Amino acid sequence: TMNNEADLDHSLTRINALVSILKLINLETGYVIPTHNNQNPFWDISSDYWALPYLNQGISLNIIAPSAKFFPDRTVTKAEFYTMLSRTPTVSRKIKQYFFSKNFRKK
Question: Other C-beta atoms within 10 Å of 52: how many?
Fold first, then answer.
């Protein structure tokens, strides 16, 4: 977009949201996604799907849950995005620190 502003007029798919979150985690931690893990718990994902390694990492980090379908091309809702984000190790740790801190419990 022009002027370095966020482009909020376009939607983000569920798979692109997950991949974006995981790429940020991997940049922060230096983690490299293994490409040999081909487990596939989703009926709507083919065994050669480009983002299957990301789906497996998302499951292993409990960012997403294995279920029958993932709906990768569906637009991610704000609630789904915030749920994924809140389950990342860094954000999850900060949430726990805040809500279980003595200062929060005194309010």
Answer: 18
User: Residues 84-88: contacts with CB within 8 Å, 24+ apart?
Assistant: 84/17, 84/18, 84/21, 84/58, 85/21, 87/61, 87/62, 87/63, 88/21, 88/24, 88/25, 88/61, 88/63
The answer to whether 38 and 54 are in contact (CB under 8 A) is no
Q: Is the pTM of this model over 0.85?
A: no
Determine how many CB atoms are found less than 10 A away from the CB of residue 24.
Answer: 13
For residue range 1-48, list pLDDT tens digits in order. 444 444 556 789 999 999 999 998 888 777 777 666 668 889 999 989
Q: How many Å from the N-terminal Cα to the C-terminal Cα in the chain?
A: 42
